[in-house]
Design a protein that fits this description.
6 helices, alpha+beta, single chain
Length: 169
Amino acid sequence: MRAQTRQAARTTGDTTRTPRTPPTTPTTPPQVSAPAPAPTDGAPPARDALRIGQLAERTGVNVRLLRYYEQQGLLRPRRLGNGYRVYAEDDVRLVAYIRTLLAAGLTTTVIARLLPSVCERDGVLRPCTPELADELRRERDRIDSQVAELLASRTLLNQVIAAAPQHPR
Protein backbone atom coordinates (compact mmCIF):
# COMPACT_ATOMS: atom_id res chain seq x y z
CA MET A 1 0.00 0.00 0.00
CA ARG A 2 2.75 2.47 0.94
CA ALA A 3 4.70 1.60 -2.20
CA GLN A 4 1.58 2.35 -4.27
CA THR A 5 1.14 5.67 -2.48
CA ARG A 6 4.79 6.58 -3.07
CA GLN A 7 4.53 5.54 -6.72
CA ALA A 8 1.37 7.63 -7.14
CA ALA A 9 3.10 10.60 -5.54
CA ARG A 10 6.03 10.24 -7.95
CA THR A 11 3.82 10.09 -11.02
CA THR A 12 1.50 12.93 -9.95
CA GLY A 13 4.22 15.11 -8.50
CA ASP A 14 2.45 15.18 -5.12
CA THR A 15 5.20 15.50 -2.56
CA THR A 16 3.14 16.42 0.48
CA ARG A 17 3.90 14.40 3.54
CA THR A 18 1.93 13.85 6.68
CA PRO A 19 3.74 15.19 9.74
CA ARG A 20 5.12 12.64 12.13
CA THR A 21 3.78 12.69 15.64
CA PRO A 22 6.31 12.27 18.43
CA PRO A 23 6.18 8.96 20.29
CA THR A 24 4.16 9.03 23.47
CA THR A 25 4.70 7.27 26.74
CA PRO A 26 2.06 4.53 27.10
CA THR A 27 1.31 5.31 30.71
CA THR A 28 1.98 8.49 32.58
CA PRO A 29 2.21 8.25 36.37
CA PRO A 30 -0.58 10.25 38.03
CA GLN A 31 1.77 12.65 39.82
CA VAL A 32 3.47 13.78 36.61
CA SER A 33 1.47 15.98 34.29
CA ALA A 34 1.99 15.56 30.58
CA PRO A 35 4.59 17.95 29.24
CA ALA A 36 3.34 20.96 27.36
CA PRO A 37 3.83 20.53 23.64
CA ALA A 38 6.96 22.15 22.35
CA PRO A 39 6.27 25.35 20.46
CA THR A 40 6.44 24.94 16.72
CA ASP A 41 7.14 27.88 14.51
CA GLY A 42 8.70 28.63 11.21
CA ALA A 43 11.14 31.16 12.61
CA PRO A 44 14.81 30.45 12.10
CA PRO A 45 16.71 29.40 15.21
CA ALA A 46 18.35 32.11 17.30
CA ARG A 47 22.10 32.50 16.98
CA ASP A 48 22.71 30.76 20.31
CA ALA A 49 20.20 27.96 19.55
CA LEU A 50 21.52 24.41 19.45
CA ARG A 51 20.35 21.48 17.37
CA ILE A 52 20.06 18.13 19.10
CA GLY A 53 23.43 16.92 17.77
CA GLN A 54 25.13 20.05 19.08
CA LEU A 55 23.48 19.60 22.49
CA ALA A 56 24.62 15.97 22.53
CA GLU A 57 28.17 17.03 21.73
CA ARG A 58 28.21 19.80 24.35
CA THR A 59 26.77 17.61 27.11
CA GLY A 60 28.28 14.22 26.27
CA VAL A 61 24.76 12.72 26.29
CA ASN A 62 23.73 10.81 23.19
CA VAL A 63 20.88 11.97 20.98
CA ARG A 64 18.60 9.03 21.86
CA LEU A 65 18.90 9.86 25.54
CA LEU A 66 18.11 13.53 24.89
CA ARG A 67 14.96 12.45 23.03
CA TYR A 68 14.07 10.22 25.97
CA TYR A 69 14.48 13.18 28.35
CA GLU A 70 12.08 15.11 26.12
CA GLN A 71 9.54 12.24 26.22
CA GLN A 72 9.79 12.26 30.01
CA GLY A 73 9.11 16.01 30.15
CA LEU A 74 12.60 16.89 31.37
CA LEU A 75 13.55 18.88 28.26
CA ARG A 76 11.22 21.03 26.16
CA PRO A 77 12.97 22.09 22.98
CA ARG A 78 11.39 24.50 20.55
CA ARG A 79 10.38 22.92 17.23
CA LEU A 80 11.00 24.59 13.91
CA GLY A 81 8.52 24.35 11.07
CA ASN A 82 10.56 21.47 9.63
CA GLY A 83 10.26 19.54 12.92
CA TYR A 84 13.86 20.06 14.00
CA ARG A 85 14.44 20.43 17.72
CA VAL A 86 16.13 23.64 18.79
CA TYR A 87 17.56 23.93 22.29
CA ALA A 88 18.52 27.02 24.24
CA GLU A 89 21.95 27.54 25.73
CA ASP A 90 20.39 27.00 29.20
CA ASP A 91 19.51 23.43 28.19
CA VAL A 92 23.21 22.53 28.39
CA ARG A 93 23.11 23.28 32.12
CA LEU A 94 19.69 21.63 32.46
CA VAL A 95 21.04 18.35 31.01
CA ALA A 96 23.89 18.54 33.54
CA TYR A 97 21.32 18.90 36.35
CA ILE A 98 19.35 15.94 35.03
CA ARG A 99 22.52 13.83 34.90
CA THR A 100 23.42 14.88 38.45
CA LEU A 101 19.98 13.94 39.78
CA LEU A 102 20.06 10.61 37.92
CA ALA A 103 23.50 9.89 39.37
CA ALA A 104 22.06 10.64 42.81
CA GLY A 105 19.66 7.74 42.28
CA LEU A 106 16.49 9.61 41.36
CA THR A 107 14.23 8.31 38.60
CA THR A 108 13.19 10.44 35.64
CA THR A 109 9.64 10.47 37.03
CA VAL A 110 10.86 11.95 40.31
CA ILE A 111 13.17 14.36 38.49
CA ALA A 112 10.30 15.62 36.30
CA ARG A 113 8.31 16.35 39.42
CA LEU A 114 11.19 17.96 41.33
CA LEU A 115 13.10 19.81 38.62
CA PRO A 116 10.88 22.93 38.62
CA SER A 117 11.59 23.35 42.35
CA VAL A 118 15.36 23.00 42.17
CA CYS A 119 17.50 26.13 42.30
CA GLU A 120 21.14 26.70 41.57
CA ARG A 121 23.30 28.82 43.79
CA ASP A 122 27.05 29.06 43.32
CA GLY A 123 26.95 26.13 40.90
CA VAL A 124 25.25 23.83 43.42
CA LEU A 125 21.74 22.42 43.06
CA ARG A 126 19.56 23.25 46.04
CA PRO A 127 15.95 22.63 47.00
CA CYS A 128 13.97 25.86 46.70
CA THR A 129 11.21 24.78 49.07
CA PRO A 130 10.99 22.87 52.37
CA GLU A 131 8.62 20.41 50.64
CA LEU A 132 11.27 19.60 48.07
CA ALA A 133 13.85 19.05 50.80
CA ASP A 134 11.40 16.66 52.50
CA GLU A 135 10.88 14.71 49.26
CA LEU A 136 14.63 14.52 48.69
CA ARG A 137 15.05 13.12 52.22
CA ARG A 138 12.45 10.44 51.41
CA GLU A 139 14.35 9.59 48.23
CA ARG A 140 17.59 9.39 50.23
CA ASP A 141 15.89 7.01 52.70
CA ARG A 142 14.71 4.85 49.79
CA ILE A 143 18.27 4.69 48.44
CA ASP A 144 19.64 3.89 51.91
CA SER A 145 17.20 1.00 52.12
CA GLN A 146 18.36 -0.31 48.75
CA VAL A 147 22.00 -0.04 49.86
CA ALA A 148 21.22 -2.01 53.04
CA GLU A 149 19.53 -4.73 50.95
CA LEU A 150 22.54 -4.90 48.62
CA LEU A 151 24.95 -5.15 51.55
CA ALA A 152 22.88 -7.99 53.03
CA SER A 153 22.94 -9.74 49.64
CA ARG A 154 26.69 -9.34 49.42
CA THR A 155 27.14 -10.76 52.93
CA LEU A 156 25.03 -13.79 52.00
CA LEU A 157 26.97 -14.25 48.76
CA ASN A 158 30.27 -14.08 50.67
CA GLN A 159 29.02 -16.82 53.02
CA VAL A 160 28.05 -19.04 50.08
CA ILE A 161 31.43 -18.48 48.42
CA ALA A 162 33.28 -19.22 51.68
CA ALA A 163 31.40 -22.55 52.00
CA ALA A 164 32.34 -23.65 48.47
CA PRO A 165 34.95 -26.40 48.06
CA GLN A 166 38.43 -25.13 47.27
CA HIS A 167 40.40 -26.06 44.13
CA PRO A 168 43.35 -28.35 44.91
CA ARG A 169 46.67 -26.66 44.41
